[in-house]
Recover the amino acids of this structure.
């Protein structure tokens, strides 16, 4: 039989495994299924999300602009989002019920989130999107909370369940799952920048693993967020290879710091401000007054002084970070974190280091620790870092920040954007900023009330995420029946789609295929990891798996942030990488049989083609096939008249669904 080889990639490798001419025909049919040729689609039935169009050739120009400009308040995807309606047919996506603006007249019956969202929509005269379907909701919530697609039996049972409270019960079950712990350990590993090494410091795998274990245990036991922050900031650690939380302080080490350690104190203060207060501009004022530097970025920053930055850094002035050598050849060491009360307060006596010289300010030669946002100082005899943690967690900005971080993960953009550039003087409509400046949050009252609710509920992260995932606003469809305008994005008038993390893509493919991806982090590791979401840092693993994940821009917890852009390497990997191709093939027997093999066993006859296709769509995309998709797939499967040809068609169809646009997006 004549072989067919598709287009070549940059390494002169075929983008798809060799196929027969019959396989090429199914590939052509799959093009329709995967939205690669939108001109051949029925636009009324299957319009595209514009965010998803970032993967298409027409999206190349949009990709160049699909980044967040940190100097602007506007979210960069607004222009793109204006085109978004739906990936799937309206019949499959929208629950009947029409307009939901009537809810705005009953705000007293709504929870915190919906009361504010619906009021803002009503005030703006904007109709929110309809409620999403059960198919979309279970996929959306499962991916957002656990990082994997739902299993098909769970989808079928959920859709068939008549219980009006089933969505809230689903969220409870997801929050209690080990997969939730895995995903949010990864998220907080990103937030706390846990890695073996960065441009300044080495933790070694032992320190990284200890920190990862601390984060994972904290999430698993639902440790309150104020306690997590307090342990990171205030804990001593005699051995950072054994006591993981000490490694966060280690992340503030700076090479070339003056002997007094001021560069290190400064970086530790900057890390506290950005991580826990969403204020990256503190890092700026630790070098110079904000005036003439932050004038166009922050009202607070414009008025902030370097002396205020010194006051924040002074909380770390009595902290000793000491390397304890384990071996010289090769050099390996852990860190001890202790306090020495005999050390002076922050000294202004340096002309060296990584920041401008620190000179006495009038008669001030040593700066006392002072929380710059309230002017509060430690009590007499109080440990400086413990005092900082105490002041920090009772500051509503601490709660605003984590609310905003998690809101962005769940809703697609923050209430404040960029999430690490809060301006403390632009948050309260009752105290408006100077002329020419706008209030920063899109929903300031919502942000404040949700932050206070979070504090009142014991800084409970699961409580906060449940409040978000069970809100009506989270349950809006991502399609929009009316005329979508860019300004509606900030109103959260529909659910914004997001591209999946690389770990979510890979783990979902592994789960669907029933073929594990064993990742040995160390040579001859007897306990390899099976899920990418369990990796302790994005630098791991190496090889093919690492390259696949890197193409999805997972960041490095140092110089590169995790990003959601589309790219050509992502598309090539989904089409051509062995991690995907091997998982489309029919292989194995019994419990180790691949998904493709199971389909062929369960639906062995041509008369069962429709059932086979339905199971495949429910497993991969968590929804039924549309009529157009079913007809295309039935035609392709019918052309496989021998057992070998039928197997080839099933494998090709599974490959096509892995490459379908809506597989790599959560909507």
């Amino acid at each position: 039989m004549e072989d067919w080889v598709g287009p070549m990639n940059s390494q002169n490798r075929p983008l798809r495994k060799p196929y027969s001419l019959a396989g090429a025909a199914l590939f052509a049919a799959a093009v329709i299924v995967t939205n690669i040729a939108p001109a051949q689609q029925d636009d009324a039935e299957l319009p595209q999300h514009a965010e998803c169009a970032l993967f298409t050739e027409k999206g190349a120009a949009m990709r160049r602009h699909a980044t967040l400009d940190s100097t602007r308040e506007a979210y960069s995807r607004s222009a793109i989002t204006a085109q978004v309606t739906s990936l799937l047919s309206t019949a499959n996506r929208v629950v009947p019920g029409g307009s939901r603006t009537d809810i705005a007249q009953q705000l007293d019956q709504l929870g915190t989130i919906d009361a504010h969202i619906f009021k803002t929509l009503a005030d703006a005269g904007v109709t929110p999107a309809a409620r999403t379907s059960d198919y979309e909701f279970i996929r959306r919530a499962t991916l957002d909370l656990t990082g994997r697609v739902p299993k098909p039996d769970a989808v079928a049972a959920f859709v068939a369940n008549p219980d009006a409270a089933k969505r809230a019960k689903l969220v409870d079950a997801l929050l209690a799952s080990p997969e939730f712990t895995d995903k949010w350990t990864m998220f907080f590993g990103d937030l706390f920048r846990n890695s073996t090494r960065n441009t300044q410091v080495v933790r070694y795998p032992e320190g990284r693993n200890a920190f990862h274990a601390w984060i994972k245990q904290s999430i698993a036991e639902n440790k309150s967020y104020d306690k997590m922050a307090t342990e990171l900031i205030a804990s001593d650690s005699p051995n950072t290879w054994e006591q993981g939380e000490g490694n966060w302080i280690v992340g503030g080490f700076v090479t070339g710091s003056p002997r007094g350690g001021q560069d290190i104190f400064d970086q530790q203060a900057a890390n506290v401000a950005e991580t826990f207060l969403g204020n990256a501009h503190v890092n700026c004022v630790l070098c110079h007054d904000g005036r003439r530097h932050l004038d166009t970025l922050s009202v607070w920053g414009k008025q902030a002084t370097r002396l205020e930055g010194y006051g924040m850094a002074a909380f770390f002035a009595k902290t000793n970070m000491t390397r304890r050598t384990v071996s010289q050849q090769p050099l390996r060491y852990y860190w001890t974190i202790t306090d020495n009360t005999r050390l002076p307060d922050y000294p202004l006596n340096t002309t060296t280091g990584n920041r401008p010289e620190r000179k006495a300010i009038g008669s001030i030669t040593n700066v006392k620790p002072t929380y710059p946002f309230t002017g509060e100082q430690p009590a007499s005899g109080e440990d400086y870092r413990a005092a900082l943690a105490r002041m920090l967690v009772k500051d509503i900005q601490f709660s605003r920040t984590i609310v905003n971080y998690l809101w962005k993960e769940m809703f697609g953009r923050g209430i404040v954007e960029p999430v690490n550039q809060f301006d403390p003087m632009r948050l309260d409509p009752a105290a408006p900023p100077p002329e020419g400046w706008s209030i920063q949050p899109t929903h300031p009252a919502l942000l404040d009330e949700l932050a206070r609710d979070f504090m009142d509920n014991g800084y409970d992260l699961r409580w906060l995420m449940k409040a978000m995932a069970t809100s009506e606003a989270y349950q809006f469809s991502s399609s929009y029946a009316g005329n979508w305008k860019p300004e509606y994005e900030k109103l959260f008038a529909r659910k914004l789609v997001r591209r999946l993390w690389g770990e979510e893509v890979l783990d979902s493919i592994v789960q669907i295929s029933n073929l594990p991806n064993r990742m040995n982090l160390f040579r001859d590791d007897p306990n390899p990891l099976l899920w990418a979401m369990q990796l302790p840092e994005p630098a791991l693993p190496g090889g093919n798996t690492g390259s696949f994940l890197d193409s999805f821009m997972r960041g490095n917890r140092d110089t590169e942030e995790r990003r959601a852009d589309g790219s050509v390497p992502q598309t090539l990997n989904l089409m051509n990488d062995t991690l995907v191709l091997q998982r489309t093939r029919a292989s194995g027997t019994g419990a180790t049989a691949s998904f493709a093999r199971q389909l062929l066993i369960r639906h062995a006859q041509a008369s069962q083609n429709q059932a086979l296709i339905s199971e495949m769509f429910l497993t991969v995309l968590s929804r039924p096939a549309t009529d157009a998709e079913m007809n295309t797939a039935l035609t392709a499967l019918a052309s496989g008249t021998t057992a070998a040809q039928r197997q080839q068609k099933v494998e090709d169809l599974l490959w096509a669904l892995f490459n379908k646009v809506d597989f790599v997006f959560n909507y």
Observations:
- The two ends are 42 Å apart (CA to CA).
